[in-house]
Amino acid sequence: MGQNMQNDITDGVTWLTKQGIADPARVSIYGASYGGYATLAGITFTPNLYACAIDYVGVSNLFSFMKTIPPYWKPYLEMMYTMVVNPNDPKDSVMMRQYSPVFHVDKIKCPLFIAQGAKDPRVNKDESDQVVAALKNNNVTVQYMVKENEGHGFRNEENRFEFYEAMETFLKTHLVDKKANAPVIRAMPIKN
Predict the structure, then answer these.
(1) Domains located in the chain, CATH noted
(2) Which candidate, 66, 160, 58, places its Cα nearest to that of 112?
(3) Tens place of pLDDT per residue across the chain (192 aa)
(4) pTM of the model as a whole
(5) Catalytic residue among 33, 92, 93, 129, which?
(6) Is 174 a catalytic residue?
């Protein structure tokens, strides 16, 4: 996590901007769960790449994430130690600190929108709370939506509508064409 998989995302954004498909001044990153982690990693490890970001139930701290594994994941814990990280291995602990976005929030420059279910059994609400608390002192715009009746992703239709409306407003606010001073949300044509 945070290494080659994150490099692939960065390489993709770089390629899109070099091809003229994406405007480098108006690239946003959005993801849920692991994608939320990738969002936070993107704005901490490559802070100049994104104009804004949306993290939806994303992991921010590999230490706290691994400590709050839900009971139904316990049979897979050894596999997770092999595939993700093993907090009991000193070498992995160094890597966990290095690639946990929460320890690097001081590098975040762009506005961030975080959405979290309070009853999330997979990615505990504390993952989002840690980032929000750390950003309060950094003068970075952070919008935080917590739904008390939701878990890992919003299932309630009203909550989904509210989330996507808030996301649209957030993007319209932060992906502004600086020259025209107008929001830019449009589909980009695919070049052959």
Answers:
(1) 4-18+26-183 (3.40.50.1820)
(2) 58
(3) 778 899 999 999 999 999 999 999 999 999 999 999 999 999 999 999 999 999 999 999 999 988 888 888 888 888 888 877 888 888 888 989 999 999 999 999 999 999 999 999 989 999 999 999 989 878 888 999 999 999 999 999 999 999 999 999 999 999 976 555 555 544 444 444
(4) 0.88
(5) 33
(6) no
Sign of the dihedral defined by the CA atoms of residues 137, 48, 59, 7, in that order: negative
Q: Please confirm, yes or no, whether 128 is among the known catalytic residues.
A: no
Say if residues 103 and 133 touch (Cβ distance below 8 Å): no
185 token code pair? 């949300």
Give CA–CA dist 52/39, Å, rounded. 10
Report which DSSP code applies to 51. S
Q: Which one from 104, 120, 128, 174 is the annotated catalytic residue?
A: 120
Sheet with strand 142-147: strands edge to edge: 28-32, 52-56, 112-117, 142-147
Q: Is 33 a catalytic residue?
A: yes
Which of the following is catalytic: 55, 64, 104, 152?
152
